């Protein structure tokens, strides 16, 4: 492992946005020559330096875990006294404007288990070398100005043994290759686009590839290539198709064309995150690239398409226009997630996509916003930037862009992004620059939206209504408040666009005319709530209407309303828009849950079940949407409703919902299941996917209603499945419903997919999530499976994170055993891979809201680990410190 020289969080100073200063030096050109090998690689760097501005600051370069072999300034070797080395970098007082600094360093890829910098993927005999630089990995490769506002042109020469490393790749266009003595060879790449160091990448090893010719709308011929190890190359075709779709879409929708002669993607099984947008050389976690019908589920196919698009879209939103500093991370991530979401919506069903995105936000981001790790989309400070690749920066950031896009309309938003690209191409910019460009292109001041980027916490919007029959007017009073978050006690009102409609009792939408307007303006409109409270008065309203607020989830807020179960049931039946219909059902399910938790009357539960029973028979309803409607909110979301959280009680109450629904649908389940199963095939078209999605849900309900038939059906489905979606759904149904057949099916799956890492991850994850008091023993047993290792992030996430974050009942044991157990795993993992350890530690996010017994246990476990902070990585120590604060 590259030694982590940074001290743990206590004592390590936070980086402040307000401390930002433009760099004192620039680098015009970076020339790298890399002699690559598994145990030791030698990196020779030649930096053409420029002073930036008039200051006299000495040259200071970042570098971590590097063994310096030689250092030359303007052609002369420096004496020891002419440069200063410390754990975080190198100072060269003699450097002048126009100087050229040459360093040679040695790094040890095989020892790098943190997977940042240059590392080995796979076994040392067969694996390959690759890099990961975002956010601050380049400093583990060479001494440099490792900050995103230093943009340089790169020329990279790679040299290695030809037999061991036949493929050599770096960013930019290929610029020659050839043989060297002793069986070695070289390859050179020139990247004409200046870029920050975090976008640097190289790859070397035995890789196969597939390729396709592509011509951009502007007429540039591009070779698209995907590289993977021999056993994986047959699974890259789907990703290549997705890439082409993404490239065409970006040309059509944003007018963005690709800008190099090659676009390369490489797949690895050893990756901390999903994928990385290195210029012209994207590197992907295999999980988001490899697909084949036998091992990939429908959900995964969609994810792969989305991540391929996401990384490609970064070429403009992130690479051509990059971030000034890491506080601006959402400038590229929020915008790129928004672009990716829009693309996926266009490729499939917009309503379903919106439902998925909102439920992700509620499951992952709302809890973050409500807990000790809450932070703004653009935080004002950080100790460890790795810990800010969060749902808030990504998903909430995307919602902010969506709000802006909604405010401007499609044409206005396109004018805005056109100006943003034209004005800032080749620059490192801020969220303010983005808002300014969007505003300038439309003659608007969007700066009030900056508060959304600066203020953490999920705003609550409350609605009160008064209908006056005498004047036929309807007054909607909207109030907002945002609960305090760590370091931000006071919150300001935000500009909140609320898309609303009013239903008449017969299910039709009423025309909307606000007081003072000459005529009604449509049946749906956006109300801009900008103050703490505002009243909107509609006139010509013939009857007391039923309001439909926050249509399409027009802002990332929680609407608190007293809508009665009967009204929610009405909207669940009648809303024309898929998202709103789903949301009405979710609200109704929440009311049913609240009542079940208190042991109160089941009015909402009955209303929910009756409405769903009616929709179950509605032949016009899309099968995938029905599957979503039939699914109550997750235990995590429901737990967010409790002031004091008892995960067992949440689970029981949620079970009441599930069982009641299963009982209500009763005899209708089996025929529906059989009808869906009769149409089973392995095709990937939307209708087939939708049927499988509904079938999975119906099978789960059937297993509750009639376990004997349910288990028999699941067993048959498992044995005869046409693809992974059906196979995994059947296996999950058997395992989760405690079927007698479960053990045997698990064993058969394990054998069938032995050696298929991605399929085994699903096997680990499924078992880790079974809600049972015995979950910990099960997870401990699975850790002894020969396929388990703490060294592979995907495996750690599949087993440990699925358990700690996806199994509230199993993890939050009242005796605290799982907390103490996880803390020990965090210790081990931290020594291997700090950023993965830190991510896993966020499982403790909600500890303060736990009921007192569990809370005490969690606190003790956390405190024991925090006491060791000086021996922990900065990543883990930072999470612990904030979690306990
Ligand atoms: N920038 C990557 C993305 O969003 C995520 C990432 C961050 C990957 C840090 C690796 C390290 O696509
Ligand atoms: Zn991204």
UniProtKB/TrEMBL annotation:
Domain of life: Bacteria
InterPro entries assigned: Aminopeptidase_N-like_N, Aminopeptidase_N-like_N_sf, PepN_Ig-like_sf, Peptidase_M1, Peptidase_M1_dom, Peptidase_M1_pepN, Peptidase_M1_pepN_C, Peptidase_M1_pepN_C_sf
Any one GO molecular function term: zinc ion binding
Domain spans labelled Peptidase M1 alanyl aminopeptidase C-terminal: 566-885
Annotated ranges, domain Peptidase M1 alanyl aminopeptidase Ig-like fold: 457-561
Positions of the Peptidase M1 membrane alanine aminopeptidase domain: 238-447
The reaction(s) this protein catalyses: Release of an N-terminal amino acid, Xaa-|-Yaa- from a peptide, amide or arylamide. Xaa is preferably Ala, but may be most amino acids including Pro (slow action). When a terminal hydrophobic residue is followed by a prolyl residue, the two may be released as an intact Xaa-Pro dipeptide
Alphabetical UniProt keywords: Aminopeptidase, Hydrolase, Metal-binding, Metalloprotease, Protease, Zinc
Listed EC numbers: 3.4.11.2
One GO term (biological process): proteolysis
Gene3D superfamilies: 2.60.40.1840, 3.30.2010.30, Neutral Protease Domain 2 (1.10.390.10), Peptidase M1, alanyl aminopeptidase, C-terminal domain (1.25.50.10), tricorn interacting facor f3 domain (2.60.40.1730)
Domain Aminopeptidase N-like N-terminal intervals: 125-199
UniProt keyword Zinc, yes or no: yes
Primary enzyme class: hydrolase
CDD domains: M1_APN
Cofactor: Zn(2+)
Protein family per UniProt: Belongs to the peptidase M1 family.
PANTHER family on file: PUROMYCIN-SENSITIVE AMINOPEPTIDASE
Name this polypeptide is given: Aminopeptidase N
UniProt organism field: Mizugakiibacter sediminis
